[in-house]
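Hi team,

Below is the intake form for ZC3H15/TMA46 family C-terminal domain-containing protein from Hevea brasiliensis. Please confirm the fields before the structure is written into the shared record.

FORM ID: S-0412
PROTEIN: ZC3H15/TMA46 family C-terminal domain-containing protein
ORGANISM: Hevea brasiliensis
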Amino acid sequence: MGTEEEQKGKQANEQPRSHPITETEFLTWKRRKDADASARKAEAARKRAEDIAAGTVQMNGRELFLHEPWVFDSSQY
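The structure came back. Fields below:
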């Protein structure tokens, strides 16, 4: 019985979609996907900023320049 169910599931995956996706369905999916991606990116940036403020991670060059620009002041030389 298990193999028969697997074959039916496999056949269902191989068959083309009987209901083509509409433009509105695609745009809804795309907006949701983009919103999720931007939310994840914003959360990662927020966590990185918190970690930098706490001193738990090392800053890269751009972050160091933005947070401590005096380090790059070469007017003394």
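SUMMARY LINE: The two ends are 81 Å apart (CA to CA).

Thanks, M.
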